[in-house]
Structures are given as C-alpha cells and as structure tokens.
Design goal:
single chain, alpha/beta, Rossmann fold, seven-stranded mixed β-sheet, 5 helices, 7 strands, 22% helix, globular
C-alpha cells in the first residue's frame, strides 16, 4: 500500500513517503506544500495523511484537489486539524484557517454545500469524522467526546461552546 505523509515534521511514518518543507532525519522529499503540483505522479497513493498541517497552508481547497489527483480511486486521505473551538486552534499564530464538522463539505459529494458552492470538482466520499482521535482526552471530556463522535452536528450546535474538544479528524475517500 503506497502511503504519503504530507507535512510530517517529526511524525515519520514507516512505509510511507514522508514529505516536509524542511530537511530532517526521516524526511524523504523536501517540498513546500503551498507549491502545487506536488512532485508525484497522479493516482500513485492509496493513502495520504495530513496531521495538523492543513491549517498552516494558504489554499486548503487547492490542497484537497491536489491530494485527489495523487490518490488512486478508492484511496483515502486522513486529515487531522485543530477543532475551531479549541484553544489550540488560536494559540498558534501560523494557523491560516479554522475547521468545523462541516468545513470539508465543500469537497464531499452530495452535500448541500458542495452543490451550492462548487469550489472544487474533486469530490470525495466522507468515511468518518472523529473528535480527539489519537489524543488523550481528559476524563471530564470523555462522555462529551463520545456524544460528539456519535452526533457531530448536535455537539457542534449545542455543546461545543460549553465544552470544547481539541481536535477533529476526517477521513475522505476518492470515489471516481
């Protein structure tokens, strides 16, 4: 399975092509992700990972289009971003965009947002949305996290302003 880890920094993935703007141990390709196209052939990856990267980039929709180009049909991209209500979303002055459970609807086939705005022709299928996936969640937040993962829209509308979760993970699949 061909895997691409974009903007990996020190989060090196075994058996993946690790890409970052800066050269370091474990980085396979040095490339600025704001410069599109990326130096890879079309339809050459089964999985693309962006772990806390997209919020740092100038044109996130262009990046989603580029990932679509790089993915094989049926391939997935796992995108991890700070949730917009999280303190961590605003602490880092290098963040250029903020994300909600519906931020990726522009690139998800069949959503009202993708039909209305048509910012991209690269439409994915949404596989899942998860809050705080892969991070330690405080005991107080665990039941809220369970609710958010079961009913993300409900959480965002009614609970997120009271108890903010930290991170949002979305998995998208290239369908055609």
């Amino acid at each position: 399975m061909a895997k691409l880890n974009l903007g990996c920094g020190s989060k090196i993935e075994d058996k993946a092509v690790n890409v970052d703007k800066y050269s370091a141990v474990g980085i396979d390709v040095v490339h600025d992700l704001d410069v599109i196209p990326y130096p890879f052939e079309s339809a050459s990856f089964d999985e693309v990972i962006l772990d806390n990267v997209l919020e740092h980039l100038e044109k996130p929709i262009d990046v989603l289009d580029e990932i679509y180009r790089l993915l094989k049909v049926g391939g997935t991209t796992k995108i991890v971003v700070p949730y917009f209500r999280s303190l961590w979303s605003y602490v880092d002055p290098t963040h250029k965009s903020w994300y909600t459970v519906h931020s990726f609807d522009y690139a998800v086939k069949g959503t009202e947002t993708s039909k209305k705005y048509m910012y991209t022709k690269s439409l994915y299928e949404r596989v899942c949305i998860q809050f705080n996936d892969g991070i330690q969640t405080a005991k107080l937040k665990r039941p809220v996290c369970a609710i958010a993962n079961r009913w993300p829209r409900f959480y965002e509308i009614y609970l997120s302003s009271f108890i903010a979760l930290e991170q949002l993970t979305i998995v998208l699949r290239k369908v055609d």
